[in-house]
Specification:
- With 468 residues, this protein is of the alpha+beta class.
- It has 3 domains: 145 residues, PAS domain (Beta-Lactamase, 2-Layer Sandwich), CATH 3.30.450; 85 residues, Helix Hairpins, CATH 1.10.287.130; 150 residues, Histidine kinase-like ATPase, C-terminal domain (Heat Shock Protein 90).
- It is 53% helix and 16% strand.
- It has 10 helices and 12 strands.
- It has a 5-stranded antiparallel beta sheet with strand order 2-1-5-4-3. A 5-stranded mixed beta sheet has the order 7-9-10-12-11, covered by helices on one side. A two-stranded antiparallel sheet has the order 6-8.
- Strand 11 and strand 12 form a beta hairpin.
- Helix 1 packs antiparallel against helix 4 and helix 5 packs antiparallel against helix 6.
- The longest helix is centred in the middle third of the chain and has 54 residues.
- The two termini are 70 Å apart.
Length: 468
């Protein structure tokens, strides 16, 4: 079967094939090397035995006058004996007619024997037509005795051992087949046991550390995302429930007052009071809806990564002190009615952002400082540089303060420390949530310090403008 491009293969199968192939190659290579070494050793030993035999016969020939007759009487077995005269002519050959043989003076073993007394070679014979081993020795008479043995006969002798080696190779490959099958499964099993869903998997092999670590990280990221999704869903449900609850109260009040006026149940002198109630609740509804819309836009901007400036308009350079003074001017009547002194201090500092959102941020902070203050109290609004150049807005009051256990929650939507007092004073419960998200929109950091009975200070630190 032809594997399609991109098709997956079994790691176990690939390891099995690789191990079997490696074992087979190693077995064949080792067998071939052993055969060559064995063959070389065997031929060297055969040369040594042939040389010893040649020297022994040469000593016998030196002791006789008729060399040819003595050689005829000897049982040389498979060896071939040749007598070569000092001029290279052949005077005797045990397996051929000497008269028909060519001059042997150019034969390496003969030339070496004539020159040094002994010679050896391993070559194809032009006379008998097969490869032979040659050993030659010079006689006292000056002639050269040469013995040779058929190499084919030697290799035939080796073939019996070679068959044993081949059988051994087959056995090794068979054993490697079984062992490779077991090992491949054993190596792959720990990989198959990795559980990507556990989040705490341990790599069975060092090479798998990056993969398993990444799987664990992705599992952790998935859990965080699922948790974030669940938190967002819970927040939406809670937000919807809170909005519904907050809307029901003024709507019910408006409906009740309107019904009394419509049905003529309300006395004429009470109509202005009911109308005022309707007006106040309508304003509260308008404020609540406005805050909800602002928060929705801020949420959308955060989901867009803060890059969607079209929701609030283009980013511009805004004088933070000017915004604080505008807010203080609008809220001065409210502060006066509450018996609270409102003061703005600081220097002109430029912030890159949206004027409307910055106005909302300052308004909510100052409004809360007035609302939760006490008669005769004070609200200070400071605009000063922090850390050298970072614009900072600080709103402090001398009001009722926030309990320590509630300080981490006051920026949540619809959270109220004193629910009864907040509703009586007209708060929507969204002011500090808008402050939190508006600060995040501008990349600012919020810090809260508060002590029950002494007051609260909220500090918003903006990023320093570019180029400073």
């Amino acid at each position: 079967m032809v594997r399609q491009p991109g098709a997956k293969g079994s790691l176990s199968h690939r390891m099995f094939v690789a191990l079997v192939a490696a074992c087979a190659v190693v077995a064949v290579a080792v067998t071939a090397a052993a055969s060559l070494i064995y063959q070389g050793a065997f031929l060297a030993d055969e040369h040594a035995q042939l040389a010893e035999e040649c020297r022994a016969i040469a000593s016998l020939l030196d002791a006789t006058d008729d060399d040819a007759a003595l050689l005829d009487e000897m049982d040389l077995g498979a060896s071939r004996a040749t007598l070569v005269a000092p001029d290279g002519s052949v005077s005797y050959d045990s397996q051929a007619d000497a008269a028909e043989l060519p001059n042997h003076a150019d034969r390496p073993e003969v030339a070496a024997a004539l020159a040094t007394g002994a010679g050896s070679s391993d070559r194809a014979s032009e006379t008998v037509g097969y490869t032979s081993l040659y050993e030659a020795a010079r006689l006292d008479s000056g002639e050269v005795l040469r013995l040779s043995v058929d190499r084919a006969g030697v290799l035939a002798f080796l073939s019996r051992d070679v068959m044993v080696l081949v059988a051994l190779v087959v056995l090794v490959v068979g054993v490697s087949w079984v062992v490779s099958h077991v090992l491949s499964r054993r190596f792959v099993r720990p990989i198959l046991e990795i559980d990507p869903a556990s989040g705490d998997s341990v790599a069975p092999y060092e090479e798998l550390d990056p993969l398993v670590r990444r799987l664990n990280e992705q599992h952790e990221e998935l859990l965080h995302r699922m948790s974030a999704i669940q938190d967002a869903a819970d927040l939406r449900r809670e937000f919807t429930a809170n909005v519904t609850h907050e809307l029901k109260t003024p709507i019910a009040s408006i409906q009740g007052a309107a019904e009394l006026i419509r049905d003529g149940i309300a006395k004429k002198k009470d109509v202005p009071e009911f109308a005022g109630r309707i007006y106040d609740d309508a304003r509260r509804l308008s404020s609540l809806v406005s805050d909800i819309l602002t928060l929705s836009k801020l949420d959308e901007a955060e989901r867009a990564g803060g890059g969607d400036t079209g929701l609030f308009g283009a980013v511009e350079r805004v004088d933070l002190l000017s915004v604080a003074r505008d807010v203080a001017g609008r809220l001065a009547p409210k502060a006066e009615r509450a018996g609270v002194e409102l003061a703005v201090r600081g220097v002109s500092l430029v912030v890159s952002g949206n004027t409307r959102l910055l106005d909302e941020l300052v308004s909510n902070l100052v409004d809360n400082a007035i609302r939760y203050n006490r008669p005769g109290g004070t609200v200070f609004v400071w605009v000063l540089p922090s850390g050298g150049s970072a614009p900072t807005l600080r709103v402090s009051d001398t009001g009722i303060g926030i309990p320590e256990e509630a300080q981490a929650k006051v920026f949540e939507r619809f959270y109220r420390v004193d629910k009864g007092r907040s509703r009586d004073m007209g708060g929507t419960g969204l002011g500090l949530a808008i402050v939190k998200h508006a600060a995040a929109y501008h990349g600012a950091q919020i810090a809260l310090e508060s002590e029950v009975g002494k007051g609260t200070t909220i500090t918003v630190t903006f990023p320093a403008p570019a180029g400073q």
